[in-house]
Amino acid sequence: AQSVAQPEDQVKVAEGNPLTVKCTYSVSGNPYLFWYVQYPNRGLQFLLKYITGDNLVKGSYGFEAEFNKSQTSFHLKKPSALVSDSALYFCAVIVGPEGNNRLAFGKGNQVVVIP
Amino acid sequence: NAGVTQTPKFRILKIGQSMTLQCAQDMNHNYMYWYRQDPGMGLKLIYYSVGAGITDKGEVPNGYNVSRSTTEDFPLRLELAAPSQTSVYFCASSRTSGWPGNEQFFGPGTRLTVL
């Protein structure tokens, strides 16, 4: 079954430092991968996606993610974290047959950026 | 565009009561989804729909029902509420064209407590 795993529960970084949120995937066939962010008491917001092509994907709010086929990973990165980046981050992968766009989500990572 | 809207924002139910969570989108998206979010568990798909009149079960459909009579609306029905249905419920939608990899747009959520 298609799935993603987010191995860490919480990521703490100091403001201005690089931020990395880890995600590994397990799929048969081509992986279609996503990152979403959830701010407190809000719905999820789309950050970026990998479908095909360049392994480095750029997204919203200065985030980027690197697709690594050999390591089956899709880590989210930001070169310089802001306090406002503190939120819950979800990795997701398309599952199911072609045409219904269903997603399976990881358990989420709480990111805490310390001023 | 309002995007994806959900009502109510909060609700407390007694065990055995029923209710309908409303979801509407004004983006003319064919695909719509219902998720529940429990702490540390990520999002689990309850039901989804690929168009008016077509619905299908997700990972955790027991205790819920859906209908899709129009493109815009996708209500979720809880019959005989149980404490295990205490959760935050999110509705989402996505467009059809350009598959694979269309991002989902999420509503603000409904926080439901069953006592």
The major β-sheet of chain A equals:
6 strands, mixed
Order of helices and strands of chain B: EEEEEEEEEEE
Shape of chain A: globular
Strand content of chain B: over 45%
**Could you give the distance between the termini of chain B?**
36 Å
Q: Strand tally of chain B, please?
A: 11
Major protein interface = A-B, 25 and 27 residues
Look at the structure and give the mean pLDDT of chain A. Answer: 92
What fraction strand of chain A? over 45%
Number of strands of chain A: 12
Structural class given helices, strands, pairing of chain A?
Answer: mainly beta
The largest sheet of chain B, given as strand count, sense and whether it forms a barrel, is: 7 strands, mixed
| Uncertain residue segments of chain A | none
Please mark out the parts of chain B with pLDDT under 50 across 5 or more consecutive residues, or reply none: none
Q: Into which percent range does the helicity of residues of chain A fall?
A: under 10%
Describe, in plain words, how this protein is organized in 3D:
The complex is a heterodimer of chains A (115) and B (115). With 115 residues, chain A is mainly beta. Chain A contains no helices and 12 strands. Chain A has strands at residues 3-5, 10-14, 19-21, 24-26, 33-38, 44-50, 56-58, 64-68, 73-78, 87-94, 103-105, 109-114. In chain A, strands 2, 5, 6, 10, 11 and 12 form a 6-stranded mixed sheet that branches. A 4-stranded antiparallel sheet of chain A has the order 3-9-8-7, with no helix packed on it. Chain A has a two-stranded antiparallel ribbon with strand order 1-4. In chain A, strand 5 (33-38) and strand 6 form a beta hairpin. The N and C termini of chain A lie far apart (40 Å). Helices cover 0% and strands 49% of the residues of chain B. Chain B is mainly beta. In chain B, strands 2, 4, 5, 6, 9, 10 and 11 form a 7-stranded mixed sheet that branches. A 4-stranded antiparallel sheet of chain B has the order 1-3-8-7, with no helix packed on it. In chain B, a hairpin with a 2-residue loop joins strand 5 (43-51) and strand 6. Chain B is globular and about 45 Å long. The interface between A and B is medium-sized, with 25 and 27 residues.
